[in-house]
Each structure stands twice: as structure tokens, then as C-alpha cells.
Amino acid sequence: MKFVMPGGTGQVGTVLKRALSAAGHDVVVLSRHPAGPGEVHWDGETPGPWAAEIDGSDVVVNLAGRSVNCRYTPANLRQMMESRVNSARVVGEAIAAAGRPPRVWLQMSTATIYAHRFDAPHDETTGVIGGAEPGVPGYWGYSVDIAKAWEREQESADTPHTRKVALRAAMVMSPDRGGVFDVLLRMARLGLGGPVGGGAQYMSWIHDRDFARAVEFLVARDDIEGPVNLAAPEPLPQRAFMRALRAAGGVPVGLPATRWMAEIGAFVLRSDTELLLKSRRVVPGRLLEAGFAFERPAWPQAADDLVRRLRGRAAG
Question: Of 100, 181, 182, 296, which cross-links 207 as Cys (Cβ 3.0–4.6 Å)?
């Protein structure tokens, strides 16, 4: 099959392209800065020659959007919103104009759409959409607004011949340099892998190979459309998550950090504490109901595998 991946040069795109190419699929990446074979230029905002790649393709997986690993300034939040909404809009326009439209459009979304909570997990049916929780920073609601606008743009696109799925993805854990797992492991090795702000907030995650397998599963299942949570079935509190990561990496101690210490660290790393402090307790209800079997459902075993693969790449 031919897959077209707008915005496919980041960590998640690298994971997916690697898996799809290994499975024998033809993968074309749309990028603002194409750098090699299989990459085609687009600007993420306007129609162009790139649309010819979508016409006649089998699957579009839109991953485009400004990275969330940054300071949540008004300017950056605006860029996050515009890059996601504009790319989803123009992808929808290209699909609508195609003489041979793809049969499925997978649109990246985020588990951040759900409310900050500790008491119960969010699935697609009973999960609570965030934005109005008491006692959290007001700008956290804007992250939810971004996710809702992202999904709304796909939902409203006039593409009657193309099935649409919104991928509410948790953090994708892969052994790639610069990815979220690599960053967390480096923090742990520096002694900073302890509980943050008490560590009771839940962390949702998905192993890279399960992420790629879930994408292929959703492509094959013509009966699934709408929002789907891409998260391992066993989210866990941040303190337990980091304890398992330290064990996998052979790091005996992780210093705890208060909220204000996390603020300082996030400022130095040019990131934001929402990524550390928001409780994301998300479970894959629809995937499990449809019969998808996770190869790495539990974090300790997934972390062991990721550390082993990371060490193998370093040795190679």
C-alpha cells in the first residue's frame, strides 16, 4: 500500500516510516524541508504539487504540527494551534479534490484532550474532555482547545469516500535519539529521575512497536472510525513510571523534585511543566474491544526492551 505522511520527519514519523517500510509499504513523507528520497515539499498550509501524492494513495497519516516540547508562551501556543488546524484543513482539501481518494485518513491527535484527573481512567466512551478542571493552570485549557480544534477540522472535512480516525496518542516511547524516552532516560542518569510534584500524576505511554502495529490494525479495520486512544492499557503514576525506568537503566537513585523545581528545570530545558505535571490516565478502550493485542502492555517490560535496543544502537 502507499502511505502518505504529512509531517512525518519527527520522532513519531520516524517510528512509523521504519515499521511501514519494513513491512513492504511505499511511504511518502511531506515535509517543509525534504532531505532525501521519499520526501516531498509542502508548507502545511496551502495546496500544491504535493497533493498529487495523496491522489491514488491508500492511506494518509497526518502527523504535522509544531512540537509541544517548548515553552507554552502565547506565541508558541498559537503556532501549535495554527500548524495543526491548517495542516488538517489542507490535507482534507487534498483528499476531497482527489480523483482517487485514499480509503482511510488517520489524523494525529493527543491524549492531552482528556481532563487532568487521578480517580479514574479515560477511555473513548466514558473519558472526560478537559479544559474546565479546577485548580490547574489556565493555559492547560488551551492545550485541550488545540486538540479539540485539531479533531474538529478532520471531522468537518468533506471526504465521504475516506474513513477518518483521530489518533489520541499518548507519549510514543522509542529508542531513537532525541525522542521522549531518550530524554527521560538521560534525566534519570543525571539523578533527576525521581517523583515530580509528589509523583501521583498518571503517565500514559505506548511502546513504539505497538504504536506502529496499532496504526496498521486501524488501517485494516474498516469498521473503526472516529477517536481512538493509542495508549498502553496500563498507565501508572509518575513515581512508579520513573522507578521502572531507573531499574531498566541501572540507575539506583532518583532525586525528587517539587513543583517549583520542575518549573526551573522546564525553563532551562525550554519545555513546560504541563508535560510533567498533568495527570494523563488514558486507556485504549476501542483497541481492546476490537481485539488488538499489545506486545508491551506493561511499562517495566517495555522500558527494559527500549533500554536494550538503545544500548544496541549505541554499540553498533
Answer: 296
